């Protein structure tokens, strides 16, 4: 929720652990306790939310699995620990898959009719004799469900993990249905009852937890993993990888000899909820609800289709918990939070929410891929298919073979002065008109403009946007600029921040209309440049403000709203008693806001949008095209971009703010993004010291020749494939990538400082080459 400008006031941070830390009523004297070193490193996320961020990964829990040297075993006896094939009976089938269930254990098998492959919800029986894990975790891995709970009545109680086998539980009420089966897992010792459904449709299996039927007894459910070992495979003799939704997507490759390395991937879907506790890390958020695994010529991709806002993606490489590589959804039912006992909030204790989070459906689809599509491109393509069939996204229609350049124009900002703040004019509406005219004349004939900081007080003024500041030209000047842009077929979006309010316009009163956490504390953060407190608005108040403003946007002739810093990007619960909102309800409020804006104006742009926004937006701005650099992650991939290219336009970070100019430009082209710049008409030095827009190189005259050159390069690579799907992505040599589009066009990207050649095509150092129709361009 910040760029570089926000400094966040944090709750206490604790060590990352798979089993949640001890709850105590001890008084906390400081709210900035240091964390111990983590097992991996992560780069700084400049888009971090203004609160403690999510866990990067966890080390071994207190009840760590024992790893022992392999001992001679009776293979038949060991295999008997797993369900027998003879116990599985047909439950239902589709044209492509057969679903079979074991009524005793609740496990299932899936037979793929297309290739004869068998998929299991439990460990691979052929490899199980080599499993060295013992004790509790041996039972956990054999169980169809494992969960974590706490005794809320005992303030000294620690979270505990158990599983159906460990708890000596049983399967109850199993019934077959027209499309699968349903049953209840009865944890007889701990008292939990968890009803679930499993269904088969077309080429996928869907598991579902029925929240309304869960019973808890005297204990409180924290989280659970349903069929966690589905598709699990060891690294032994297997060439494979796990796909995790880190940044734009990343691979964790199968590795040998990684025993006792407890690094895992465990990340909140759509980021953490600032109304609760989450460890602060520098990780990129998981923005798309997808994970997958490839093993040899087999692969599945899992799409979370309901309740994902209350989930984590959990990935355990071989050696962390057993010899298998396994991935699952970890469904959250309660989250720890800091209950302050002082007005300043620096004393208190940690506890858990009393009420259990509920969702209409916590469901996961496991798409089983055909052998010729068993890789991350096939996974992303299947997710694209889901977005089109189930979410209603359609392939883009384009009117030009030139790719659009997304241009952010900064109107004004504020600089702190001795007695009063100084107004810094970046670009008036008349200057914006000249800027667009000149860039168009230089050859950038397809542009889309975001006009930012046009409100009274400039970019750092949040809330009460209208009217347009008179010092920039007022409403009339903005109308004239938009009308002129339209003569060049250039759409104009007006930037709007509907997350914060620091001017108390629109009738906003922080006491009554501000977002509050579970402890009732107002959600505020300090602006980095001037240390002023900024309040987060309750989502419902934000929605009301937007509804009132849309008429004003339309009267100015705006083609859309560009939502900055929050809407569609961060997802938080609100415990303001006037506007209570669960995480699910906040997600729906944001979706409704985007839908209303799109229906009113025609287009919507969102900064670094989460996947739940896709059916209601036109463009994703400053799209993440990197990963978090954890040591256990092996490679970044453009998974999300492969899935949505040709459905929604997207641009990477501003070109004139890159750290490694050529490398980041090449990666942007590799990922199929449109070019993007942020400009002012004012000299860059005049914007120094601005509260928010203090980037030091924004003057259009300093960058226009570079922008034109870069635009031409992007056009060469992507102009004629703007609405084409990406059908291939691979590494063809060290630091050389090849991207294939519908119709066969290939773009080859050479990141090396020396030229690349395969004898047929040559690519200069740190450059691209385009191959189409069997020839080069």
Number of strands: 44
Main beta-sheet strand count, sense and barrel state: 10 strands, antiparallel
Instruction: Specify the overall morphology.
Output: globular
Cross-sheet strand order for the largest sheet: 8-9-10-11-23-18-17-14-15-35
| Helix run count | 11
Folded structure, characterized:
The protein has 777 residues and is an alpha+beta fold. Helices cover 17% and strands 28% of the residues. The chain has eleven helices and 44 strands. It has a ten-stranded antiparallel β-sheet, with helices on one face. The N terminus is likely disordered.
Brief synopsis:
The chain is α+β, with helices and mostly antiparallel strands and 777 residues long. The strands form 9 sheets. Strands 8-9-10-11-23-18-17-14-15-35 form a 10-stranded antiparallel beta sheet, covered by helices on one side. Strands 36-34-33-32-28-27-24-37 form an 8-stranded parallel beta sheet. Strands 6, 7, 12, 13, 16, 19 and 20 form a 7-stranded antiparallel beta sheet that branches.
